[in-house]
Amino acid sequence: MKHLIVYAHPHADSFNRAILNTAVEALEAQGHEVVVRDLYALEFQPVLSAADTASMRAGQNPQDIATEQKFITDADAITFIYPIWWTGLPAILKGYVDRVFAYGFAYASGEAGIEKLLTGKKGLIINTHGTPSDIYDQIGMTAGMKMTSDVGIFDFVGIESVDHLFFGSIGYLDDAVYQSMLEQVKQTVSTKF
Description:
One of its GO terms (molecular function) is oxidoreductase activity. InterPro entries: Flavodoxin_fold, Flavoprotein-like_sf, NAD(P)H_dehydrogenase_qn. By secondary structure, the protein is α/β, with parallel strands linked by helices. The chain has one domain: Rossmann fold, CATH 3.40.50.360. The protein has helices at 15-29, 50-57, 63-74, 91-100, 133-139, 141-157, 175-192, and strands at 2-7, 33-38, 77-83, 107-110, 113-116, 122-128, 160-167. The strands form 2 sheets. It has a 5-stranded parallel beta sheet with strand order 2-1-3-6-7, with helices on both faces. Helix 1 (15-29) packs parallel to helix 7 (175-192). The model has no long low-confidence stretch (mean pLDDT 97).
């Protein structure tokens, strides 16, 4: 299986990086082909500009968008790994979705309504956040984030969400807990793909 991981964290020593490394190792151990698109390392331009939309309407995608769309087209599965900032995606990943999951590529409209152009692909989202998970669960934030990303992004374009992992209290835990979280990442990618 061809697996694309879209990764968005600016720090090389972050727990998100440990999650990324664990996911890649587990997938490759099972024989999957893995491509990682590290948006910060790529210095991905997140702002959807008027020039972008004009080019896309003319049928000429900007090269950086076309490159990312090719990775998505080639992938059987897509995983997003990112921290929750202000209850949502980091700006660089939001911009990736804005620019890359474009009309005519990821979705379109037809007689029956929205056409999901990425149907047949599987998706996984792995998030970290500093707030304890039970607080996010109690106030409805976890459910809200699942709605906006699993449904609002993945399902909207036809990607089947196989799971969504949330790891809370990041920055306040001991090594044993972090290791347990990484084991959960390993088990999830090993069983869902």
